Amino acid sequence: MAWLTIEEAAQLLRVKVSWLYDRTRRNAVPHTKLGKYLRFDAGELTEWAKSFHQDGRGRGAARGPVSVSENRH
Questions:
Q1: How far apart are CA 34 and CA 5, in angstroms?
Q2: pTM score of the predicted model
Q3: What are the distances in angstroms from CA 5 to CA 1, 9, 55, 67?
Q4: Comparison of pLDDT for 61 and 2, the residue scoring more
Q5: Which one of 25, 51, 64, 67 is separated from 18 by 20 to 30 angstroms, measured CA to CA?
Q6: Are 29 and 45 in contact, with CB atoms under 8 Å apart?
């Protein structure tokens, strides 16, 4: 288990430290509080971030491909 400081975690996620502090206050991001210190498990944080991955296909992607003739009128 590799523990990250808040600065290291923010750098890993490529977000501002203030954004990460806000999310930890809301318990929206996995973290551990050791007294006054926040720590983040690198693997857990990476898996959490992957849960937000989107494939870019948008709404209705399960309908299947749309032909060019249907899409252009």
A1: 11
A2: 0.71
A3: 13, 6, 30, 50
A4: 2
A5: 51
A6: yes
